[in-house]
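User: For my dataset I need records formatted as: sequence, then structure tokens, nothing else. Please produce one.
Assistant:
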Amino acid sequence: MIDGIGKHSFQFGPHAYHGRPVKSWGGIMICDSCESANHDGVVLEHHPNLLAHLVKIGAPMARNEKGWLPIPQ
């Protein structure tokens, strides 16, 4: 889940940090399970809201050899 873009929520606060902000993506949040499931990159065609957000903020979108967008550290 990408906060504000995905459809699920997760706890991120005292005693439970189940995700992290992706600073180069404008600080949006990604949960640990989604990051783990997409360890080799995000298929942007499956996430049009993410793509629109990244275009809007001018984030770099260098895709990997599979054509997927790696999640920055």
